[in-house]
Amino acid sequence: MLASSMLVVGGLAAAGSAAAEDGSGDAGATATLEQHLYHGGPVVVDGSERVAGGLFTLDTGKGSVYTYCIDFGHYTKNGAKYQEAGWDATSLANNPNAGRIKWILENSYPAKGVAELPVKGLSEDQAAAGTQAAIWHFSDGKDAVPKDPAAAGLTTYLEENAAVQEEPKPSLELTPDAVSGKSGDLIGPVNVSANATVQLRLDDAAAKSGVKLVDRDGRPVTEASNGSAVYFSVPAGAAPGTATLTASATTEVPVGRAFTSLGYTPQEHSQTMILAGSGKVDVSDTATATWARKGAIPAAEAREYCQSGKVVVTVSNNGDEDFTGTVAGRPVTVHPGGKQEVAVPVAEDAHYAIEIKGSNGFSKTFEGVLDCRTSSSTGGGTAGGTAPSASPSPTPSSSATGGTTGTAGGSTTGATTGGGLAETGSSSATPVIAGVAAVLVVVGGGVVFFLRRRRSS
Q: What residues have CB less than 8 Å from 106, skipping those under 6 apart?
């Protein structure tokens, strides 16, 4: 499978998934890809490539959320793990038409039932195919036209009427996700961005040592709302240590939020999605505090910037001595009360690991995969399927993948699409290919077939 979508590990993740090696960071909702396609149909892309495009479902543990592809040139992978992310963490960061995609999501299927759409007589499959084709026009610059005339009419309507809208806010996010200070002080603030009241919890070890979560006036808090500021109250004279704040809630993720694939290898990665509809899901985020009595007291966080193809690491120091160390091998010196940013170039679609080391044995590593570009050399469609749009917890139809197998840019023989469709790939083709190869080897008396898949640029 081709690598898609990025993952920031660590830091200032206002726009993407984050998870440091110490376990901190994942912001918002997480989910698992349930199947290739939930609704959809055949789409002709750029006048020749025939793919299946439509609606996906991601399992959040409380039910399913609905998504469309915004990453045409990469495969999907059944069972891939996903993380809610902001547009800056995807190719939409460089896309002036990103806001038009949000308009499409709010004014087409499944946000609106097929009876509410301006083109009448559409099935759910046709509505999904028409919607996906319009999204590909703005997300990937594709000339995508559904084979079905009614679906093609919906695509034309959406493309001609889509208006620019603002990016939706995250369902839940703590910023920054790493703070530091002296024991005896209030350490923070950690700012809460959320669309629901969130519950706050301190890790057991920190709570037993006397650390508390408080507001700016020092009053203990157990919950917070959007715009709240939370601090760590550390007892005076406490030995150097760390604490982790976990914020959690059950809420609805806003339509238009991106979902990026978690995982560092091509085998683990799957194409980037955008949310088309959801019910209530569990969301969470974490932030850490570090303290000491004296000396350098650093904190480090990171953020991916798709616009520049870099990960920016920010090192702050709230101690009373200089912090000296390295970020990705580059020397840094941060004076007391200061901070320093280091922009680290990283390769597209490749795993990176950025290590920070320095004073008092400080060590932290940010890992991820930068996926900021869409590829035009391969297809991104999927096999189709049927199921009702209204249910927040759908039961996918067994016809959704219909036996189709194939690779982007290739052909398929599945009954669902009638053959000839490129498909966002999954591992389902592997046993079929292996079995055919084995038979051919026996029948051909030792003829060996080598099958290779090429990674798109």
A: 165, 255, 256
List pLDDT tens digits, range 121-137: 999 999 999 999 999 99
Q: Are 309 and 343 in contact (CB under 8 A)?
A: no
Three-state SS for 87-142 is HHHCHHHHCCCHHHHHHHHHHCCCCCCHHHCCCCCCCHHHHHHHHHHHHHHHHCCC
Q: How far apart are CA 355 and CA 133, in angstroms?
A: 41
Q: Quote the tokens at residue 70.
A: 């915004």
pLDDT of residue 373: 76
Tokens of 124: 């759910």
Q: Cα(93)–Cα(116) distance, rounded to whole angstroms?
A: 31
Angle (nearest 5°) at CA 168 between 166 and 172: 155
Element housing 37 (H / E)? strand 30-45
Q: What are phi and psi of 23, to 5 degrees?
A: 95, 0
CA 397 from chain center: how many Å?
Answer: 25
Q: pLDDT above 90 covers what percent of the chain?
A: 61
The model carries a pTM of 0.73
Asked if pLDDT for residue 344 goes beyond 90, the answer is yes
49-59 vs 64-69, strand pairing mode: antiparallel
CA 264 → CA 33, 287, 318, distances in Å?
17, 23, 33
